[in-house]
Amino acid sequence: MGGTKSLLHYFTKTEAALWSFSVLFISLSFAGFDRENYLSLSASLLGVTSLIFCAKGNPVGQLLMVLFSLMYALISYTFDYYGEMLTYLGMTAPMALVSLVSWLKNPYEGKRSEVKVNCIGRGETLFMLLLALPVTALFYFILKYFGTANLAPSTFSVTTSFVAVYLTYRRSCYFALAYALNDLVLIVLWGLASLKDSSYVSVLACFIVFFLNDLYGFYSWQKIQRRQQAR
């Protein structure tokens, strides 16, 4: 009971409200359009829980993201979104694991529940963007070979995912903004999928609330960064 009370006090009222809204929105979308694919429901609920921990700079969020990535890859496979499947299996999941190690190795003032926010310079930002080009090109040909549905947005999703996971590993507050951009791409992808199969509306709903959570995550990390720098 004490652990539950501590967890409730750990999150602000805004964070608790955002998480509750996200869970309700996902659950209602599942009840209205799916009712069968409990893997999608479980992955979505796990995902929003991961994001609320990530917004606090808590490494638990990265651990949950590894699990979400594996589940989401399987969901993507069912609709021939091989780009999403390969991206999450070959990049997002491994990088979330690497980021977990990075976050654990860089606690703020020895506090394991909060990572020390890092700032990257223009040189590293340019390096990251240049590195994203060959990664995107490589995945484009791989996705084309496998006959990936909606090739253009699927390829762009690789680019945004790479930037997001790189910034996550480097503990930059901009990782959440990169993920928000990736969410917009995924909203397009799963919106197209939903036009063919309404059961995917629940996955679409997942990324709509992911977008809101990532925007909040960016705001939260900016506050954390200012607080840490002030001390």
Helix content: over 70%
Order of helices and strands: HHHHHEEHHHH
Biggest beta sheet summary: 2 strands, antiparallel
- Oligomeric organization of the protein chains: single chain
Number of E strands: 2
Class based on secondary structure composition and strand pairing: mainly alpha
The averaged pLDDT comes out at: 89
Rounded Rg: 17 Å
Give me the side-by-side strand order of the main sheet: 1-2
Q: What attributes characterize this protein structure?
A:
single chain; 231 residues; mainly alpha; two-stranded antiparallel sheet
Topology:
Blueprint: H1 2-10, H2 13-33, H3 38-54, H4 60-78, H5 82-105, E1 107-108, E2 111-115, H6 122-145, H7 151-169, H8 175-196, H9 201-230
Antiparallel strand pairs: 1-2
Question: What can you see in these coordinates?
Answer:
This protein is mainly alpha-helical and 231 residues long. The protein contains nine helices and two strands; from the N terminus they run αααααββαααα. It has helices spanning 2-10, 13-33, 38-54, 60-78, 82-105, 122-145, 151-169, 175-196, 201-230; strands at 107-108, 111-115. It has a two-stranded antiparallel sheet. A hairpin with a 2-residue loop joins strand 1 (107-108) and strand 2. The longest helix is centred in the C-terminal third of the chain and has 30 residues, at 201-230.
